[in-house]
Write the structure tokens for this entry.
Amino acid sequence: GENVEQHPSTLSVQEGDSAVIKCTYSDSASNYFPWYKQELGKGPQLIIDIRSNVGEKKDQRIAVTLNKTAKHFSLHITETQPEDSAVYFCAASIPGTYKYIFGTGTRLKVLA
Amino acid sequence: DTEVIQTPKHLVMGMTNKKSLKCEQHMGHRAMYWYKQKAKKPPELMFVYSYEKLSINESVPSRFSPECPNSSLLNLHLHALQPEDSALYLCASSQDWGTGNTIYFGEGSWLTVV
């Protein structure tokens, strides 16, 4: 079945630096990849998503890249700020179903 | 406005109690979901309703009983829960049910079973 690996599990960066989180999926038929940010005590919030017909998508300081050949997609956050500190989850659609599988999460800490 | 509203935010219940979690959305979404999230883990799908009909039950124990009174509301009825059921319960919705439909989560209901 579909599997998603997410790395790193924790990431600390200095304010203003960039952060990169990478996810690898197993089923080449997956075609939709959302990223969620979950702050402490809150529900996950969609921050960006990408479909398999696109290689890169950007929204202000956040970007996602997709490499279908290597079956991985990455979240890039530039000019990080303390409010970017949260747990980030990637997800991938499960082919043949209408479900998604989530990565194990990355705890990002932005140090002021 | 992409808002999914869940009540209550916190719930403490005994193992013999009956309680309900409630969820509503007014975005016109036709698919609604219940997820369970344990600490430091990703959300786990429990149920999916599509057009007010139960489409997926991920082998959830019968002590959890979902209900979809109408297209805007989703309930999760709880009865005879166990302490290990303590978790964050997330409601979510999407425009439709299918691959590529963005899922929007609510803030969750924190459940503690004592």
